[in-house]
Design goal:
single chain, about 30% strand, globular, about 210 residues, mainly beta, about 10% helix
Length: about 210
């Protein structure tokens, strides 16, 4: 992704800056590259015909959703059309459903990166995960937009609960996962979450991942 795109996205939605993170067990907490999350952005996705097989195979989660036109995902938001085209997304997305008023849409771009759009009370957003071991993987079991003031996003199969952690490792929010989706109604100060932790149905921690700052 070019510096020009990064500059445009950052200008549209500047990220908060806080003190360095101080999380417990740093060896177990893997920093993640920034997933481009933009409030009030237009989301577009790669055409379904570019991939063979089930959409669950495409997305890597059991919730394969329903194919919808990109124009129905975040209608009327044209500010970052050029930037999103440069992120190699176009065509259709998979509507994964609505939870607590938040509508979720997902796809993979032309490079195979997982991309997510959200439309809900906390705002509208679009982002892609550019890590080589990106969502879903053993170390990346939740995808969320830290710029929002709610814990919401998509979780990997087997994840029953997603928690938001403060910089000192304390739990500041926790929400259940329904059909791979999570959306807490709890308001959080923007930037308060330093990491997210995922747990299985038995309460075992499956992954902890640092959020971009």
């Amino acid at each position: 992704m070019s510096n020009d795109v990064i500059a445009r996205l950052a200008a549209a939605n500047p990220a908060p800056t806080d003190a360095p993170l101080n999380l417990p067990h740093p060896a177990r907490v893997r920093p993640r590259r920034v997933a481009v999350a933009v409030a009030l952005a237009v989301a577009v996705a790669i055409p379904a015909t570019a991939f063979a097989g089930k959409f669950s195979d495409l997305l890597g989660i059991s919730n394969d959703g329903t194919t919808v036109s990109t124009s129905s995902v975040l209608p009327g938001e044209t500010k970052l059309d050029a930037a999103l085209q440069e992120l190699k997304v176009s065509g259709t997305m998979q509507s994964l459903g609505t939870l607590n008023g938040v509508a979720f849409y997902a796809t993979r771009n032309a490079d195979g990166d997982f991309c997510l759009a959200e439309n809900g009370p906390a705002g509208k957003g679009f982002g892609c995960d550019f890590d080589a071991d990106g969502f879903p993987s053993a170390e990346r079991q939740a995808f969320t937009f830290p710029v929002f003031d709610h814990l919401q996003g998509v979780a990997a199969d087997g994840v029953a609960t997603v928690q938001a952690l403060a910089a000192d490792g304390s739990v500041i929010d926790s929400t259940p996962v329904v059909d791979n989706l999570f959306a807490s109604a709890t308001d959080l100060p923007i930037g308060a979450a330093a990491a997210i932790r995922t747990l299985d149905a038995a309460g075992n921690v499956t992954a902890t991942q640092r959020l971009p700052r």
